[in-house]
Each structure stands twice: as structure tokens, then as C-alpha cells.
UniProtKB/TrEMBL annotation:
InterPro entries membership: AB_hydrolase_fold, KANL3/Tex30_Abhydrolase, NSL3/Tex30
Boundaries of every KANL3/Tex30 alpha/beta hydrolase-like domain copy: 27-212
SUPFAM superfamilies membership: alpha/beta-Hydrolases (SSF53474)
Species the sequence originates in: Hypocryptadius cinnamomeus
Name this polypeptide is given: TEX30 protein
Gene it is expressed from: Tex30
Length: 222
């Protein structure tokens, strides 16, 4: 279902992937610095979640400024919260690369501002979190991560040039919330692995994300 989500004086393009049965939980998903909501990994994850009973709302926000992307993400969260078509008990924020930075920033701001003390946001999923620029490991983008107060899942490639394995493990060890890292062996920032098809890698990512969501909400299997 295609929708237009009001954002300032314009609209964000978004698509709902809707499960057959009435969903209780949803995931809001966005793309990295390049691409849009039709990035193959996002389409694949959205379809997988919907087929397993989780509503997925993915949206496009062009803009390379994290603050701008964060504002857009917030607008989408508000939209879904007030959306009469889908009454959800809670939602997980998810993003790929820069989108996951925006998601982390939204959660930190909402939690700090007590806007979300109703617990609508259940957790955060970071796909290929860009912890640092390539070859610039001295400057970590970890400030939002360390202030997050809900469960977090990281899915990253062990050969990601923007997220060195030991550095992410170091940051995660300082986080005071339930957290998990799933390493995709030998995958780069784009989740490409020599000798494996993109679909094969996506299946691994999708299954990990869904099983983590299920652990965190004990999704009811009716």
C-alpha cells in the first residue's frame, strides 16, 4: 500500500507491506545515504516481515544530513502512531547504513524528551551501521548508541569497511541495554560476500532480524 507521509511542507514516499492477519507490531525501515526505499535489501526484508506477521513501513528520504533524515524518521513514527488503519502495540525502528544512524538518533531524542514514555518504540535494528568513515577509525559515530535505552540488534558484515568488528564490539560492550550483533561472515558494507548470492545473504539477514524481533516481543503465533 503506497502512502504519502506529511513532512514539513512536503511529503515522504512510503510503502506499507501488510501481513494477512492483523499485525500487532510493526517495523519502520529506511535506506542508506544512496538509494531509496526500493533498495533490494529493504524490499526483501519488508516482504519477509509481512509474510511472518509483522507490518513493515518503509520510506524514502533523500538527504545526506543526518539531522534532516532524523526529522523525517520522526515524522514517520508520528504518522504510524496516529494511523487509524493499523493500531499497533509497538514499533521497531530499522535502517540501513545512514538510515540506522537516523533511527538511533530518533530513539535517543524521543527517549530523552520523554515523548515516548508510552513505550511505543520497542527497539532498534541497525543494518550495516556506519560506525566510522572508511579508514577513519579514530572518529566513532557512537554517541547516540551509548544513550539508547531500548534493545538493539546490529547486523553487520565482518569485512565492513565502515564498521570494524572490534570497534563495534567495543561500543556494544559499553551499551547498557539488551543488545546483539550478528556478523555476516566476510560481507562488506553493502552486504556482498564473494561466493554467495545476494538472495542467500538476504535470507540470513531477514531470518536474523525476524527471530530477534520475535524474542523481543514474543510475537503471538496464532
Amino acid at each position: 500500500v503506497k502512502v504519502k507521509i506529511p513532512f514539513g511542507n512536503k511529503y515522504l514516499d512510503a510503502i506499507f507491506s501488510v501481513p494477512e492477519k492483523k499485525p500487532t507490531y510493526g517495523v519502520i525501515l529506511t535506506h542508506g545515504a544512496g538509494g531509496d526505499m526500493n533498495f533490494p535489501h529493504l524490499v526483501s526484508l519488508a516482504a519477509y516481515l509481512a509474510s511472518h506477521g509483522v507490518l513493515c513501513l518503509r520510506f524514502t528520504c533523500k538527504g545526506l544530513n543526518v539531522a534532516y533524515r532524523t526529522k523525517a524518521f520522526k515524522a514517520v513514527v508520528e504518522y504510524l502512531k496516529l494511523c487509524d488503519d493499523y493500531k499497533l502495540s509497538g514499533v521497531f525502528l530499522a535502517g540501513r547504513s545512514m538510515g540506522s544512524r537516523a533511527a538511533a538518533s530518533v530513539i535517543r531524542q524521543l527517549r530523552q524528551g520523554d515523548d515516548d514514555d508510552d513505550g511505543f518504540i520497542q527497539g532498534l535494528v541497525c543494518l550495516s551501521y556506519p560506525l566510522h568513515r572508511p579508514k577513519l577509525q579514530s572518529k566513532l559515530r557512537d554517541e547516540d548508541l551509548l544513550l539508547i535505552t531500548c534493545p538493539v540488534l546490529f547486523v553487520s558484515g565482518s569485512a565492513d569497511e565502515m564498521c570494524e568488528k572490534q570497534l563495534l564490539e567495543g561500543v556494544v560492550s559499553k551499551m547498557k541495554v539488551p543488545k546483539k550483533i550478528h556478523w555476516i561472515d566476510k560481507a562488506n558494507h553493502g552486504m556482498a560476500v564473494k561466493g554467495r548470492t545476494a538472495d542467500d545473504v538476504m535470507e540470513e539477514v531477514n531470518a536474523q532480524v525476524f527471530s530477534w524481533l520475535r524474542e523481543n516481543v514474543q510475537l503471538q503465533h496464532k
